[in-house]
Amino acid sequence: MLIVHDPDAPSGDWVHRVVFNIPVTKFKIDEGVVPDIQGRSDFGKATWEGPCPPSGTHHYVFDAYAIDVELSLKKGAKREEVLVAIEGYVIDKAELVGLYEKF
Fold first, then answer.
1. Which CATH number fits domain 2-101: 3.40.30.10, 3.40.930.10, 3.40.190.10, 3.90.280.10?
2. Model pTM?
3. Are 19 and 2 in contact (CB under 8 A)?
4. Is the Cα torsion angle 26, 30, 33, 34 positive or negative in sign?
5. Residue 4, Cβ neighbours under 10 Å: how many?
6. What's the N-to-C CA distance of the chain in angstroms?
7. What is the mean pLDDT of the segment spanning 1-12?
8. Which of 14, 26, 62, 85 could cross-link 9 (Cys pair, CB 3.0–4.6 Å)?
9. Do the Cβ atoms of 66 and 28 come closer than 8 Å?
10. pLDDT for 15-70, tens place per residue?
11. What is the per-residue pLDDT for 73?
């Protein structure tokens, strides 16, 4: 499972992408490929919306979760719904933070 968010957004922690039910056999997601089931971003879509901060440098946090269950949520589930659904099933979590600034 993957959640990408920007905690520096002017309106608060902004979700850019939610993806879940990624098969354990998938080690790579190729560019342009829609991975598995996408949740709803704070843009109101079940798609990727990339970084575009209005000003300054923003932290883009990529939270990857290893879980031991397939979620029964539908496409478009919100981050909060997904996080509730994985409670008790998280095996491990990794976080990658990237910085982005418009020039």
1. 3.90.280.10
2. 0.90
3. yes
4. positive
5. 23
6. 31
7. 95
8. 14
9. no
10. 999 999 988 887 777 887 776 789 999 999 988 888 889 889 999 999 999 999 99
11. 96
SS3 86: coil
Query: What residue has token string 């993806």?
Result: 19
In this structure, the strands spanning 14-20 and 2-6 are antiparallel
With bands split at pLDDT 50, 70 and 90, how would you rate the model's confidence at 81? very high
Structure tokens at 36: 């598995």
Nearest to 41 by CA among 84, 1, 10, 75: 75
Amino acid at 96: L
Quickly tell me which residue has 């056999």 as its tokens: 25
